[in-house]
Amino acid sequence: MLPDANSPIIRKLNETQAEYDRLQIELNDPAVLSVPAKMIAASKAAGAIEKLVGTYRTYQSLLKQLGELAELQRGDDKEMAEMAGMEREEKLAEADQLMEAVKDELVAAEDNKVDKFFLELRAGTGGEEAALFVRNLYEMYRKYCELKGYKFEVSDFSESERGGFKEVIATIKGDGAYRHLQYEGGGHRVQRVPETETQGRIHTSAATVAVMPELADVKIDIAAKDVEEFGCRGGGPGGQNVNKVETGWYIKHKPTGISFKMTEHKSQTQNKERAWALLRSKLLQTELDKQHSAQTSARKAMMGSGDRSQRVRTYNFPQNRCTDHRLGGEESSTKNFNLEAVMDGQLDELIAALIELDKQNRLEAL
Q1: Which has the higher per-residue pLDDT, 347 or 219?
Q2: Which of 7, 66, 179, 222 has a CA-to-CA distance to 120 between 20 and 30 Å?
């Protein structure tokens, strides 16, 4: 059934279309074109909703055709009315499919504004086994990004004694990357027999995942006195590209205790810029969590808060089962996924289910 002209979703689409038209006027304004920063901002904003507006305009054109066919159906020419009725049935089905595509684009438009984001993994309860699990998660996300063609760069990491990761931070960039990986935030639990377990007992360990968008147009004021920073040596997981010179950058925010080093670039200047970008993202996320704004709370109600203490997924190795608890309980066979495939980076089926859940809830929230 097609939405009513006064429905919330149509109102939202009309607002988005008006915003796109306004941006197009800006992009033809010499005053905007003469300032690169303004031109780039307007171009990116328009690009994020261009596909949505195009699909919606096709839908509007189809509605107009449906109206014309309805007029023909009410006419005196019976043969023409019958033909119009048959065509109208086909057009209605086409409009219904197009509206579903519009809904998909509407939900994706907000997420597509995020060009780049940080993925942070930290070991939780479980000691060395938790650190090894973080390394497994790191490899899972790295393989997924490789399969999807996303850029995946390690910014900071801390290895454990047995080669696991106490923590690792990566920068991810690519069309649709944030759209697909934004739901990973929260507590991840693993159930398996650790390598150090001699009696074959299954242990439960945990890791936490945070997904933090890097939003260039958001300003976070950070007092210089609150920050400690200095150059340091770089490096990568497994001892890759370890620098003998100080190209990395260490930063610490004293009031919150947030600290890390950035080593993804060969230039210390670039690493310093990226370190500040990550710090701003972390502080912004902290502030958003405190505020519990209407949008954030709605999203958290749908997908889970992303709070690090919240369990969103369980990886059960003995049963080769991966369960996402936002999609259903552990006993629901339709909500379990093949663990071996998931750990190999084949996350499409799992992520598609989360996207669909998010879509339905966001549309209801309108």
Answers
A1: 347
A2: 222
